[in-house]
Structure formats: structure tokens, C-alpha cells
Specification:
NCX_ion-bd_dom_sf, two-stranded antiparallel ribbon, A middle domain of Talin 1, Cation:H+ antiporter, NaCa_Exmemb, 2 strands, calcium, potassium:sodium antiporter activity
Length: 319
């Protein structure tokens, strides 16, 4: 019984180091390309930290348990906002008031509403999958279009007075940037897999049901890469990476993961998702309005509020 605990701890350590490596690589890649760290976090970082959800969801559909795929994504999106932003805020204030995330936040809300609308069809089939992947294609095109505009602006303006983000090293070699990104992208799903698999063994040993494991351990476990990346970004005072990571990961979860998984096989929507879980996910997304539109920082008080709301959500699920 000792081995699952040791492997769970190893998974957590891998997650923390991989999160740190991915943030370093993303920030320095943005510096090298002349692209804002926010845009990099919305693409490379978001995709890397959403890899565990993709792997688990596709496997769930192949294994004939498609409901786990939907629960994994919806539960992870709720955890991404309440837990992934709440816990890091307890460690360090995230100065999100300095971030320009309105456009990407609006896209996340639209993606959430599109996802909920498709859920009311009762099943995510190949048609819904193509619609979601079409939304993902537009989001990526828009992000890269913004990146090109930013690069043109940088060439036109003097940027000598612009302060470099903490953790950025303008002299970092290209192979080092690639190494950090690769280590992060490989380490995050590996660490999450170790932690989720062994935490599941521990839970089953103590007689916890498969349903509770799916709604709690799987959703929380697959959100741990986002949590690890956001903690390291918060400690490095990279609020744009932290907030962009959460927004980007949520969009990837809704558009890419269910989009791909529904092409593998149909995903039926349990009525309980339509009554409760989808609306909790949307309500959690709307909680970001003060930070996106009102210029508020995510302080420790907000960290307590978000974390407490997530604990309350778990209690409701367990009851």
C-alpha cells in the first residue's frame, strides 16, 4: 500500500517541475518571437496542460464509458477557475488588473454557451464535434492574427523602455527554450497520470465508489497540470500566463477535447449535467468578470472565496 502513496508524491513533484519548465519556455518563446506571453499561454501552455483531459476523454470513449469524458471536462473547467485560480492566490496576489484578457474571456464565454447549447441536443456526436472543432480553429486563427499584429507593432515602435517579464532571459538559446517546452509538455501529462492512477488505487482501497472517483479525483487530477503551471506563474508574477492558461485551457477543454472525443464515438449527456453541472461551470466562468472587466487583482481574499466555493461544490457532489 506504500507504493501508490510514493508514486502519487512523485506525480506531484513531476507536475510542479513540469509546470515551472513550461512557464519558463512559454515566456521566453514569447520574448523570442515578439509575441505577448498571454497569446503563448493561450496556445502552447493551454494545449499542454489540457493534454491529460484529452488522453482520458478519448480513452473513456474507446473503453465504452463516454459519460466519464463529459464529466472530466465539465468538472475540470469548474476546477480550473475555482481551484486553479483560488489556491495560487492564497500564495501570492495575482495582478490580473494588468492583463488584457477581455477578448479571450469573451471567446471562452461564447465557447461555454455553444457547448451548453449543443449539450441540450442530448448527445455530442460527430456533427457537434465538427462544430466545436470549427470554433477551435477560429480561436486559434484569431490568436495567431493578434500575434502577427503585435509583431508588426513592435517593429514600428521603440520597445527599449518596455520592462521584460520576470523569468525572461533574452540570451536563452533556442535549444534551451525547446527543452523547457518539451519537458513541460511531457512532464505534465506524465505527472497527472501517475497521480490520478495511484490516487484512484488509494481511493478504491478505502472503498470509495467509482462515481465519486470520477467526479472528484479524475476532474481534480486532470486539473493539476493547470494548477501546477498557475502556481509557478503566480510565484513568478506572471499573471498573464496564469490567467491566460486558465482561460485557454477551458476553451481547449470545451472545443478541442470534446470535439475530438465525439469524433471517436458519441458522448451521451446525462440529464444531471443539464440540470446542475453545466450551470455551475458557467457560473464559475462568470466569476471572472471582476478581474477581466473591473480591473481587480486576484487577492488572497478572493483566493479564499474561490477555494471555498470549490469545496462547497465538492460537498454538494458527494452528498
Amino acid at each position: 500500500m506504500l507504493m501508490p502513496w510514493l508514486l502519487s508524491g512523485l506525480g506531484l513533484v513531476i507536475l510542479l517541475f513540469a509546470g515551472d519548465a513550461l512557464v519558463k519556455g512559454a515566456v521566453n518563446l514569447s520574448l523570442r518571437l515578439g509575441v505577448p506571453a498571454l497569446i503563448v499561454s493561450l496556445t502552447i501552455v493551454a494545449f499542454g496542460t489540457s493534454a491529460p483531459e484529452l488522453l482520458i476523454s478519448v480513452k473513456a470513449v474507446i473503453d465504452g464509458v463516454p459519460g466519464l469524458a463529459l464529466g472530466n471536462v465539465v468538472g475540470s473547467n469548474t476546477a480550473n477557475i475555482l481551484m486553479v485560480l483560488g489556491i495560487p492566490a492564497l500564495l501570492a496576489v495575482m495582478h490580473t488588473s494588468e492583463c488584457s484578457t477581455r477578448k479571450t474571456y469573451n471567446q471562452m464565454i461564447v465557447a461555454s454557451l455553444l457547448f451548453i447549447g449543443l449539450a441540450f441536443r442530448g448527445v455530442f456526436d460527430w456533427i457537434a464535434g465538427l462544430v466545436l472543432l470549427g470554433g477551435l480553429a477560429y480561436m486559434l486563427y484569431d490568436a495567431f492574427d493578434d500575434a502577427k499584429d503585435h509583431r508588426r507593432a513592435c517593429r514600428a515602435e521603440a520597445e527599449a523602455d518596455e520592462e521584460e517579464p520576470e523569468g525572461a532571459d533574452p540570451n536563452m538559446a533556442g535549444w534551451q527554450i525547446a527543452m523547457f517546452l518539451v519537458l513541460g509538455l511531457i512532464g505534465l501529462p506524465l505527472g497527472a497520470s501517475l497521480l490520478v492512477d495511484n490516487a484512484t488505487i488509494i481511493a478504491q482501497t478505502y472503498g470509495v465508489s467509482d462515481t465519486v472517483i470520477g467526479l472528484t479525483l479524475v476532474a481534480i487530477g486532470t486539473s493539476l497540470p493547470e494548477l501546477a503551471t498557475t502556481v509557478m506563474a503566480a510565484l513568478r508574477r506572471q499573471a498573464d500566463v496564469a490567467l491566460g492558461n486558465v482561460i485557454g485551457s477551458n476553451m481547449f477543454n470545451l472545443l478541442a477535447i470534446i470535439g475530438v472525443a465525439s469524433l471517436v464515438g458519441p458522448i451521451s449527456v446525462d440529464p444531471s449535467f443539464l440540470r446542475f453541472d453545466l450551470w455551475v461551470m458557467l457560473a464559475a466562468s462568470l466569476l471572472l468578470i471582476p478581474f477581466v472587466y473591473l480591473g481587480r487583482d486576484i487577492t488572497r481574499i478572493w483566493g479564499i472565496v474561490l477555494s471555498a466555493l470549490y469545496v462547497l461544490y465538492l460537498v454538494v457532489i458527494l452528498i
